[in-house]
Amino acid sequence: MLSIDTIKAKTSEIGSKAYKKAGDIIESIESSDAVKAIDNKIERDLLLTQRKWVDRTVFWGGNMVNNQRLNRMERIIGRTDGRVDDLNGDIEMARLGMEAELRVLQRQRERNADKNRPTDLIDEKIARRQQVNEKRIAKLESKREGLLTVRGNQEKSKDSFVRTRSSIANEMNDKLNRDIALIENQFNLKGLKYKEVVLGEELEKMDAEVAEIQNERDQILADAAELEQRGRSLRIALGPLDKELKTATRDRNRVFVELSQINARISSVEAKKAGWENLRTALGVTTEAVPKDRATEAGLMRARSREEQIKRLKDGDSLKNLIAGQTPDSYTINPTIIGDFFKDIRDKDGFNQLKPNDVRRGAEKALIDKRKAENEEKLTGFDENEKLGSLEKEKDSLWEYVFQKIAASNHIEYPTLMEELVAGPYADIRADIIDRQLKSILNNVGYAFDFKQYNANKDSFGRILLAKANERFKKLMEVKDKDEQESFFRDPDHKGYVDELIDTTIKGGNYIIFDENKINSILAQNGFEKINYNNIKDYLLARSIDLIRGLDLNGQLGILRKDIPLTALIYESGIPKTRNPNQFNYATFHAFLSRNGFDKISEDNLEMRNIITDYINRQ
Amino acid sequence: MADQLTDEEQQKKAEELETRAKELTAKLAEKNEAFNKKCGALVYESNKELDKIESFIDGKEKEFDEFEGEKKKELKEAEEKYDIPLSQSEKEAYDLEGEVGDEVSDLEQAA
Q1: Smallest CA–CA separation between A479 and chain B, in Å?
Q2: Closest to A172 in 3D by CA, of B86, B45, B65
Q3: pLDDT > 70: what percent of chain A?
């Protein structure tokens, strides 16, 4: 039989081995085929992409820094300059030669004259030689002029090439800047890296936890060994713990593999992004060398197709400058500004194929894209509730954009929209507006919500949307004068909205007699501050009659079944009070009811008579 | 020491060890569940985000391929348009020189 100490030593050794084994498993996973396969695949993809970007950088860097064609153009110009210099020398030499020759001939003539010899021949020779030499000089000068013209053309051609090349480089630069900005905005790298760190910490914590429990387990085993010496087995009790340790180690290892994959993917994404940045650096070396010539650019633009012009407008500086000049937080551009911009680029930048709508659409899209990027950056790391909170605090400009888009996509205009939105409690706001339209509109401006995952958001949206709709409506009403407010109220198109607005009084039982104070208070709360009950009471009465007329017999009798409206109707009909139902003037009352919309109740309607009898008996 | 313990004490000790083992099992199960839940969510969100980014970058990459192709074409066209062949300039210069030489020679002969 083994001694207690031997058993203790043995169990401790088993514990150490088990822990070492767990460590070995982790190590083996770290270098496992699964991780390697992931790394290899990502690495292969990355290498291909990087290779492509290196080729690009070499090509464009080479073209911008050391363009062989440009070098050749410069060499030709240099050679032409050399020939012009040679010609200058030739002309000078010819002139000197001519002068020397003429001097010799002149001296010869003087000598002949001194000796009284005839000078006719020598004069003729002088004249001929002068003519020949002058002609030769003139020809050389003409040749030089010709070469200077050739050189001028070469210079112009070179400049045009440099300008075009620079323009291409600028476009490349713009595109790269835009792509990099978009990639940076699209990335939530900060968030991703934070998650990566948290995962690493969780792994460490779990390792520590497993190690601690493993040690305790070993201790229990050691203690149990002593008891086992006495015939008490505890191995069954350790079985579930061992199983749990195995599960925890397996789960930990799985997360480790997943974290490795995430690490590799993040590195790959960053390395890909570096491709754009390296090319931008390579291009940046020369792009500022030659300024753009607006007239030349405009000429090139005019020669382009409409599609190409639309594309150039989208990618070019002018649109970006227009967007940059807009008020911060604006989501729409004043049509006059777009109109002026359209004329400017058409006349000065050569965008002659574009239509005003192309420019409007392009400008609006560019503005919304910019706002989207800004909002996405602002909302980085926000959860759904934080995003909702931020949306609620958004400035009116965003909500104005949202309402305009909803109105446009429904092919309806204010205030029908308002009827849709304001009618009834927020739960009644049409689900498709929230689900389909609002989600898409908000997504477009950088507020991406997960409606499926967070169903409760629908209610929150309904509440926010209704509050904003009411707020907007109130503001729209406040700027109207008294007549405009009154005519809005009386406009047949708005009757649905008006009914809702005065729902509690018009349908709440007081069909004929209205609560003046309540009506005035509702009007003021909804922005109708310039009108009051007296201005609209005839309209309210007419609407009330309409509503009653719209009910069936049972509905109309239902009004009479309620004491408050019945009292009001009897009072308004002018029938004297009676305690005897038989003395009640049904003919007059029926005539009054008929005038007030109760068209389904006949004078001898038994139910009506029973209601009135019962009513009088209860008084 | 266990061999010095009474049966009753041994029984108690065994029960204590069993309880401790159960506690540890429950504790580890709880920790592991929390670990899986938290890490699972982090891994899911990270991969979702990475899917989005990778797909965006791939899209941009393709878009850039097309854009670059166009720019290369434009650069080539500009090279062909603006690069006047050397021979043309040289020829112009030689032709001019030839003409002058011939004319001067004629004049000189006449002189």
Answers
A1: 46
A2: B65
A3: 79
Measured in degrees and rounded to the nearest 5, phi and psi for residue A425 equal: -70, 165
- Is the pLDDT assigned to residue A597 strictly greater than 80? yes
Q: Which of A168, A255, A262 sits opposite B71 (nearest CB)?
A: A168
Amino acid making up residue A1: M
Upper half-sphere CA count for residue A297 (Cβ side, 13 Å):
25
Look at residue B105 in the predicted model and tell me its pLDDT.
Answer: 55
pLDDT value, residue B91: 60
Query: What ipTM does the predicted assembly reach?
Result: 0.74
DSSP-H helix ranges across A115-234: 120-186, 189-229
- Going from N- to C-terminal start, the domains of chain A cover 4-36+187-284, 67-168, 294-366, 384-479, 492-618
B13 and A227: CB-CB below 8 Å? Answer: yes
Chain B contacts of A91, Cβ < 8 Å?
none
Give the tens place of pLDDT for each residue, A257-314. 888 888 888 888 888 888 888 888 877 644 444 445 566 677 677 767 788 888 888 8
Nearest Cβ partner for B35 among A75, A206, A262: A206
Calculate helix-pair angle for A553-561, A563-573, nearest 10 degrees.
90
In this prediction, residue A521 carries a pLDDT of: 85
Between chains, do A240 and B22 touch, taking CB under 8 Å as contact? Answer: yes
A72 or B40, higher pLDDT: B40
Cβ neighbour number for residue A155 with a 10 Å cutoff:
14
pLDDT of residue A190: 66
Cβ distance A143 to B53 less than 8 Å, yes or no, reads no
Three-state secondary structure along chain B? CHHHCCHHHHHHHHHHHHHHHHHHHHHHHHHHHHHHHHHHHHHHHHHHHHHHHHHHHHHHHHHHHHHHHHHHHHHHHHHHHHCCCHHHHHHHHHHHHHHHHHHHHHHHHHC
CB contact under 8 A, B32 and A248: yes
Cβ–Cβ pairs < 8 A, chains A and B: 216
Residues with Cβ < 8 Å from A95, sequence gap 6 or more? Answer: A137
Cα distances (angstroms) measured from residue A444 to each of A11, A334, A440, B89: 64, 20, 6, 58
Q: Select from A1, A69, A277 the residue whose CB has the most chain B CBs within 10 Å, as the one to mutate to test that interface.
A: A69
CA triple A285-A287-A288, angle to 5 deg: 100
Whether A142 contacts chain B with CB within 8 A? yes
pLDDT tens per residue across span B12-28: 888 888 888 888 888 88
Predicted TM-score (pTM) of the model is: 0.43
Contact between A601 and A608 (Cβ < 8 Å): yes
The CA distance from A137 to A97, in Å, is: 11
For chain A, the average pLDDT equals 78
| Under 8 Å between Cβ of A319 and A362 | yes
- Encode A80-117: b = buried (16+ Cβ within 10 Å), e = exposed: beebbeebeebbeebeeebeebeeebeeebeebeeeee
The residue behind tokens 């979702």 is: B48
